[in-house]
Design goal:
This protein has about 220 residues and is mainly alpha-helical. It contains 6 helices and 3 strands; from the N terminus they run ααααβαββα. A 3-stranded antiparallel sheet has the order 2-1-3. The model has no long low-confidence stretch (mean pLDDT about 90).
Length: about 220
């Protein structure tokens, strides 16, 4: 069983990692000539952003692998297994996010603050993608059948609340779609496990089910 402290520590480590990535992004952004040609800003980001995501994504994958291995509580007779590290998001995915985020710079009245906020949200999602994918792939290849659950943190949207209401979902090709989808600024944690007994203290499945039935999120 994962303890609430283990989940909170993993979440905190990921938040710290995202903060470091966002600080690097802000430093790079501050050195750009935002009053000049927006195409030049975009082109500079297309070189910088994939490298940023790859560097911090690798770190997120390592954090997730350690988390998975720490929580893998199986009988001694079970096959030995170590978590599988996921690769960072493809450069094309990072480039696509950067192109979308800088859209406000091309408006009649450019909005650089809005563009930076969009980049910060994409940074959080893409950096954590490597860690979330590490847990998902590890669960799907573990010789001991393993699933994953979404653990909400604080105010949670209706979409994530709906997924949390499912408890553990086994890592299959079908689950790779909706259940393993994450949005910008999502602070939910992916948790490996095999039964309801593996859920941490405070995981209120009935509360999530009621909110899902009402079509709302949770505070």
């Amino acid at each position: 069983m994962a303890t609430a402290q283990q989940v909170a520590s993993f979440r905190s480590n990921n938040l710290d990692l995202v903060e470091l990535a966002r600080n690097d992004l802000s430093s790079f952004w501050g050195a750009l000539n935002l009053a000049g040609n927006p195409a030049l800003v975009r082109d500079a980001l297309l070189e910088f952003f994939p490298e940023l995501i790859a560097a911090y994504g690798d770190a997120a994958a390592l954090l997730a692998a350690d988390f998975y291995d720490e929580l893998r509580d199986v009988p001694p007779s079970s096959a030995r297994y170590r978590a599988v590290l996921a690769a960072p998001p493809a450069a094309e995915q990072a480039e696509g996010a950067a192109r979308w985020a800088v859209g406000p710079l091309f408006a009649d009245e450019p909005k650089p603050a809005q563009a930076l906020a969009a980049l910060a949200g994409a940074t959080q999602r893409l950096v954590l993608q490597s860690g979330r994918e590490t847990v998902f792939r590890s669960a799907s290849t573990d010789p001991v059948p393993t699933g994953f659950a979404r653990v909400p943190a604080g105010a949670t949207c209706a979409f994530c609340t709906m997924l949390a209401s499912r408890g553990f979902v086994y890592a299959t090709a079908a689950a790779a779609g909706e259940s393993n989808s994450w949005h910008d600024d999502c602070n939910c944690t992916i948790l490996p496990g095999r039964s309801i007994d593996d859920l941490p203290e405070g995981y209120d499945l009935s509360r999530y089910e009621r909110a899902y039935a009402a079509g709302v999120g949770i505070d």
